[in-house]
Amino acid sequence: MRAKPVRDRLVALLRNTNATTTRQVLLQWSLREVRDAIMLVPPSDQTRVLRVLPARAVAAVFELLPTPAQRALLSLLPQDEAAVWLNDLAPDDRTLFLSSPVLATH
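Above: the chain sequence. Below: its structure as tokens.
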């Protein structure tokens, strides 16, 4: 997929369709395509995308994201929702994520 058309399609989905339709369209994409697409939109839209997906898909896409993107997304969520996302990760991935150093941003 090319970046601008994918970003535009994702933004249009988020702005012009309901969550069910957005979920149905995104579930037709590969997990890597969803990951690539959400990396093209602002973090607030990234969380909206992940929130419409089933839990297993959220965990799978989240695991494909770079650690800084994972941390940015989790920082936007209420603590209880972030905990659910982390609990849905594979145990090894969750351990790796939680043991990785927090990257400083300046």
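The first helix runs from residue 3 to 16.
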